[in-house]
Amino acid sequence: MNSNKYDFLANGGEMGMLTRAKDWSKTTLGPIESWPQSLRTTLGILLNSKFPMFLFWGQDHICFYNDAYRPSLGNDGKHPSILGQKGADYWPEIWDFIKPLIDQVLQNGEATWHEDQLLPIYRNGKLEDVYWTFSYSPVNDENGKTNGVLVICNETTNQIITRKKLEESERRFRNTVKQLPLGICVLKGADLIVEMANTTYLHIIDREESAILNKSIFDSVPETRETAYPIIKKVFETGEPYYADEFAVTLNRYNKEELAYFNLVFYPLNEENEITGVIVVAYEVTEEVKGRYLLEENEKAFRNIVIDSPIAMAIFRGKDFVIEMANKAMMYNIWQKEEKECIGIPLLDVFPELKNQKYPELLHDVLVNGKTIRENEAVAYVDIKGSLKKFYLDYEYTTLYEKNGKASGVMCTVYDVTSKVKARKKVETAEARTRLATEIAEIAMWDLNLKTKKLIYSDTILDIFGFEKNTKIVHQDIRNCILPEDENIVLDAFAEALKTGIYKYEARILKLDQSIAWIKVQGKIFFDENNEPSKMLGTVMDFTIEKESQHVLMKSEQKFRLLADSIPQFIWTSDTLGNLNYFNETVYNYSGLSKEEIEKNGWLQIVHPDDREENVKLWMESVKTGNDFLFIHRFKRYDGEYRWQLSRAIAQLDESGKIQMWVGTSTDIEEQKNFTNKLEDQIIERTTQLELKNRDLINMNIELQSFAYISSHDLQEPLRKIQTFASRLATLDEQNISANARSYLARIEFSAKKMQNLIQDLLTYSRTNSADRIFTTVKIDEIAEEVISDFSDRIEEKNAIVEYHDLGEANLIQFQFRQLLHNLVENALKFSIPSVPPKVKISATQIDGKSLPNAEFKDKNYLHLQVEDNGIGFEPIYKEKIFEVFQRLNTDSEYKGTGIGLAIVKKIVENHRGFITVSSEKDKGSTFNIYIPDLSEINI
Fold it and tell me: pLDDT band for position 6 (50/70/90)?
């Protein structure tokens, strides 16, 4: 659109832009060029005005408004979609109210005026209560006919809310004054007419409020005229307050004439720089005067109350708002500064942090325009001793005038409500948490007006009583659900509540689905000023499951007692302090004592005297620690014989682990005790025999060590000589030795070598049994590297590959574990498929003992070592046999060996308290799995 063509739309801010951008040809108004001049003129004024304006035009009441009106529509509301739309379509919530006003203006051509009118509108995503001061004015077209209505308005919501808060604040202030422990009386005018007197003041002069209100104070208490009137008159005339301690005055009260003493203040009541009355604040100190020793303390209390007023006030003068006066509450409580830091200094020099806040602008508005500004719970940030602190303040700015009527300053009254606001927010937070807690706990809240029977409730109550969601119910609907058999329970609970104020009961209800449930109701009755019950607040919850559990528990307890009485063992229970509170019938039958006798003389009377002290000691230790009680002692039978008993008790715990009770048993072990004594004699005899056998075993071990020494030295020495001489014969004279001789020498040399290997393997196997088993932390990668180095020539010869990676650490017998890995790698290289390069893979992981069926230590971690090869393998039926000594699955001509290597491996694994398994198939290789527990914390 060419804005130059339509000058009336050239400006107008956001709404001017939106009006220009809208395609009006699609509306009932038609394109802009067809608009009448009266509409154009009106829109030109409206869009360029800084005052909120709204225009209804034509029969369809098409809507226009300016930028100043825009904020009243809020966010997520009608803006900007209402522009150019029919009023009836977009103002449905208030159309019933404004349509008659529009019609009145259109029909009569006269403007209307409304002040502080409540008109709820939809804005900010919800329907809000909004107050308006507005006028509806006719807009005539070129023919003089009213064709539009111009609405000039001002939203006064904040002012109305503020006014209501101030009225409530004044009401609370008066109520507070009436409840103060000081005698306070407000006297108005030169005649000193009583406008208000609190309860304490009435008590002081012994008068009813009706007897003194709206009358001269000295008509009510004439005996005080001579003493008090000259002083009060002077205060009223001069405006100077009068303070007095121990002011003596004679009063006729309580049927006698009494000389009373008061700490009092006669303070001028200043309203807009005019003395309109006198405030009397009196605190009786008659008894204090009589008791002089209390005088100083009471004087201090009086001065603190009167002088240290909680109302903070300050006066600012001139356009720079120089601080002329600030009382103690303002100076020390709000500002927290000394007088020399403030008095005579401009406000913004003392508090530069206020420059970027709203208060300087508000003060300027009050000084220049004579406004009075009030605000509750306003946020202010003030620098207190170098730290910027946040305050919530109720304040009022009032213009101060000179005698010539010129504004010269601002009176500032401040109430610090920071603590109150924070407390309220805490309460709001607490209420939100309470609501959440009741929802989580499935507890319903209810509020019943006892006079009207109106019931307010939370939605949870519908679920408890079985009503459909969103059903509207009344109090009688709830009462109808109570089972007739339980009706008296409810009536009795209400009667008791009228006496105590506490309302509670448990009863059954019949839900709409005909199911029966238990409910628990708790509440409180509130009484009005006539002590008549007015309402009840409370909760209700479904505790059917708990009730059924109680029923099951009672039956279970009955079964327990029946079972306990029917068995021959002694059954007893105790409370948490160790006091035994139940015995089964077997105890009474065994001891010959009655229940009353045991309750009177205690249960220790049936315990053998020699066992009682230790019995009590161990029992109280268990009660204190919660550990199981276990004790063998003697009980006296009805015939006087003592028999051995094994007593044990276990604490019964709740879900949180707290002891609820103890359950114990005592079992007659007299025969077992006698048998044990006989068995101990036999054990002594067998132990003697075992010691003799151990001596024989020690001698055998000594002989075995001697054999190992002989095998290591004496048996190998002849073999070395046989090998040496055979080698010399073979090289001495090759021409003189026949082929048969050379064959025999080779056989001798081979047999000797084989015998030497067998001896060495036997020695290795023997060492696995006899060597010291010293466990250390071993780096398995280093062991693997050493073993691979041992076989480097054979690996190169066979083009073998030996893989390992990050095998970690473990607690092992180092030299034995090296022998284990050496034997497994040697087997993998030895039993390889001809023409196929051997491939050996070594891996190690940690595994939980609980996952291993064969694990001895389920609570320990195990090292899982796996050695896998691609060799000749074997049939699965031999997977146990291959670990036996001298067991071979192949001929000596095919694969050389002694048949001891895997037996050594198994023995080493057993020395580590582990186990070994193997899986294999013929010509498909073998996989050895070794599992070794981590026993670093166990001394083995």
Answer: confident
Q: In whole angstroms, give the CA distance from residue 2 to residue 12.
A: 15
Is the bond preceding 80 in cis, omega lying within 30 degrees of 0? yes
Cα gap 32→19, rounded to integer Å: 10
CA distance 875 to 889: 10
Q: How far from chain centre, in Å, is Cα 290?
A: 58
326-332, long-range: CB < 8 A, 24+ apart:
330/412, 330/414
| Amino acid type, 78 | K
pLDDT at 888 over 80: no
Can you read off the two tokens belonging to residue 488? 């008296």
In angstroms, what CA-CA distances link 781 with 174, 545, 555, 825, 865? 89, 62, 66, 14, 12
Separation between Cα atoms, residue 212 and residue 220, nearest integer Å: 6
Residue 63 confidence class, pLDDT cut points 50, 70, 90: very high
Amino acid present at 267: Y
**pLDDT tens string 210-259:** 889 999 989 989 998 998 999 999 999 999 999 998 899 999 988 989 88
Q: Which residue has the higher pLDDT, 381 or 891?
A: 381
**pLDDT more than 90, % of the chain:** 23
Contacts of 515 (CB under 8 A, 6+ apart): 466
CA neighbor of 42 nearest in space, from 118, 149, 124, 131: 149
Closest to 258 (Cα-Cα) out of 246, 245, 244, 248:
248
Residue 56 φ then ψ, to 5°? -100, 125
Helix (H, G, I), strand (E, B) or coil at 467: coil
Instruction: Report CA dihedral (530, 536, 537, 542) to the nearest 10 degrees.
Output: 160
- The Cβ-side half-sphere exposure at 545, using a 13 Å CA radius, reads 3
Which pLDDT tens digit goes with each residue over 631-640? 999 999 999 8
